[in-house]
Amino acid sequence: RRRSHLSKVLGRNPVDGRSRRELGELSWYWSKNSPLAARIIGLYTANVLGVGLQPVPQSSDPDWNRRAKEWWRDWERVAVVDSLMGFASYQDVVLSTVLNWGDGATVLLGGDRDNRPRIAFVPGYLFANPSGAEFDERDIREGVEFSGGRPVKYWFRQRESNRRDHREKVRGWDARQVV
Question: Which is it for strands 144-147 and 170-174: parallel, antiparallel or unpaired?
Fold first, then answer.
């Protein structure tokens, strides 16, 4: 029985950060340089998302339903922290990035001046383990810290870096803030 190239690369061991990044870069390359791969990702994204999430409030109070729909419409336009795109476009970007890179996370940030929650997307290639002696005894794998088998914190590089040393700045986010 022949093994696929991917199973030869991955074997039975979990993918380490370097291999994950190499696989992500290869996937990204093909999605940008192969019309067929780009078309497949585009069609998949369009068919999965359609026009994006469109919540329909269905409480017994018509006034509450109207206000909830207005709140969503207003929030959808300002939901994404680091972009001018709305939430529907954000969903498209997130799914495309996940299909290209294999993973990522949405981080729930503090509210804006109207106290509406804001979100930001962190692509998987920014996941990183913190360095330093205080982290040596924690169960942290590929930027995810576990306690009792459950994720409790996610660690990300603050920005993309080509630095190969381990002194780059890494920030931890509580698991309740990451989707």
Answer: unpaired
